[in-house]
């Protein structure tokens, strides 16, 4: 089921069609930040599969824009669900800043402290680590627990994530790009962490950037930038965009908001 927004047509009409085209015969779905909301991802998978099946045959690619983990209640379940989906169809995954922190937290105590401050506790408790174990450990002991309880398959899955994907006239990244730099020269740190400089930039380019990372109450639609992080972990709203030829449409799944 596609969701209509009153400002959608006006904003999209302002963008030249020649700069925003998916190659013929292809279809793309991009899904915003999931942050441990396995329930919303499960519904979104069903929504995307139904939407794709209702359209003409195409080579379909699904892109998860990163930040699968942290903050929400079931990061481990999100990883399992995403991995299983990728085994059935073409699903490409971008690494977000939260995946970066999670992976580095296994060996770097300073990153571990940052990871825990920004929702990592919920991630660890979605694995076989009890709240009692979590609270009674030192950081070094917690790293030992992480290495023992987080499956190697999950670590390998996160390590294999990409940083930038280009399909036709669309570029997909987690956070954004550094204005004024060619795509080949973009720093990984910007692709995963940038915010204000990218969000505030309205310079025309020959591609549109689809991204997450920066939360907005509704999809943030601009001529050269499409933000689809609607804060699923707190709002209970997960957003995706479908792209084919010059066409775009939005999909959403909704569940309980965080209390």
Q: Can you describe this structure in just a few lines?
A:
The two termini are 27 Å apart. This protein has helices spanning 8-13, 38-54, 75-88, 97-105, 109-125, 131-136, 139-149, 152-159, 188-193, 196-199, 232-235, and strands at 26-31, 59-64, 91-93, 165-167, 170-172, 208-215, 220-222, 225-229, 237-244, 247-254. It has 259 residues and is an alpha/beta fold.
Succession of helices and strands? HEHEHEHHHHHEEHHEEEHEE
Q: What separation lies between the terminal Cα atoms?
A: 27 Å
Number of strands: 10
Structural class determined from secondary elements? alpha/beta
CATH architecture: 4-Layer Sandwich
Number of domains: 1
Major sheet details: 5 strands, mixed
Biggest sheet, spatial arrangement of strands: 3-2-1-9-10
| Low-pLDDT residue spans | 1-18
For the record, what CATH class applies?
Alpha Beta
CATH superfamily, please? Metallo-dependent phosphatases
Helix content: 25-40%
Structure description:
This protein is an alpha/beta fold and 259 residues long. It has one domain (8-254): Metallo-dependent phosphatases (Purple Acid Phosphatase, chain A, domain 2, 4-Layer Sandwich). Helices cover 39% and strands 20% of the residues. The chain has eleven helices and ten strands. The chain has helices spanning 8-13, 38-54, 75-88, 97-105, 109-125, 131-136, 139-149, 152-159, 188-193, 196-199, 232-235, and strands at residues 26-31, 59-64, 91-93, 165-167, 170-172, 208-215, 220-222, 225-229, 237-244, 247-254. The chain has a five-stranded mixed sheet. 41% of the residues are buried.
